Amino acid sequence: MMTLAPVADTDARFRSLFENTPELILYQNEASIILDANPAFLTLVGKPKEQVVNHLYDEFLPADVRGLFREKLAEAFTGKIVRFEVYAAQGNSAPRHWDVVKVPVQEDDRVVGVHMVARDITEKNQQQQEIFAQNKDLQQFTYIVSHNLRAPLANALGLVDLLVLERADTLEFKHAQGYLKTSLHQLDQVLVDINTILAIRDKQGLAEAEQVPLADIMEQVRQSLQDVLHNCGGTLRTNLPAGFQVRGNRAYLYSIVFNLLSNAIKYRDAHRPLLVELTATEGVGHGQVIVVADNGMGIDLAHAGADVFKLYKRFHPQHPGRGVGLYLTKTHVESMGGHIEVSSAVGKGTQFTITLR
Questions:
Q1: What is the pLDDT of residues 20-52, one digit of tens each?
Q2: Which residue numbers delimit the Histidine kinase domain (predicted)?
Q3: Which of 58, 131, 200, 301 has its CA 20 to 30 A from that of 68?
Q4: Which residue has the higher pLDDT, 176 or 86?
């Protein structure tokens, strides 16, 4: 006959959970005074227990969320279990996303205190944001398949039917054959674009980051574009701190700078000489900021809105292009953990600001 191990008493089980869980646990009275705090909370705020117990929880919260925590505490003292999410710092810690539960403790049908349990869900939120971004990309690809692939394919199918009806020695047959070739080239170009984008997405997180001197990238791009820049009478100015390096993928960095500078050249204003300025600085806190500004035609952001970086979106139809460059630029920046913003005014110019971690 099996001998059952003795079951620890309730207080011992609770104390073990209280002391060892990675989640933050506080016990508070109705005035929001901390009556007990577990080691996880003490570690987060960097205080010994005697500097936490009998202190207001407000002392460990930023001013903008104190009212929320007091409101939820008061609700818990009505006998309800209260749950909410909040983005906040605690003590001297960095701000985090928290899933907070306040559980009333009752004795003799009255609430005598409230346990607060806070679980760090920062990584979960980041994963949800990544999934949201991937879903947006999926919608973009759905658009490509339904429109950009369908249009040249439908044209090609119609032309094939027409060719069956025409004799090979007629002018109509030759015209239809030429149109068919154009439609197939358009179809091939869309497939090439999709393959390029998928290749970048597949390599996200796989390409090994390295310290890349930005001056080296600038020199390579300058050499690639020096003829077209000279022919249009343009000027490229750079302002880089000595030895400035960016941690990222060298090929992506080249593509980013090349796309932005070639766009500045393509969409220059015919009424004044082109001037492109590239500056780089260390960002506030962690990260680096790269700014590429030109005095070109500019973009009507009131009209373009959020479409600036979308695939196959073009804003200067009088100039040749496919609307792929800025989409790829944004993809490269994000694959290195950064983000890109644009400010622009028609007739004045455009500025792209890249922030890398």
A1: 999 999 999 999 999 999 999 999 999 999 999
A2: 144-357
A3: 131
A4: 86
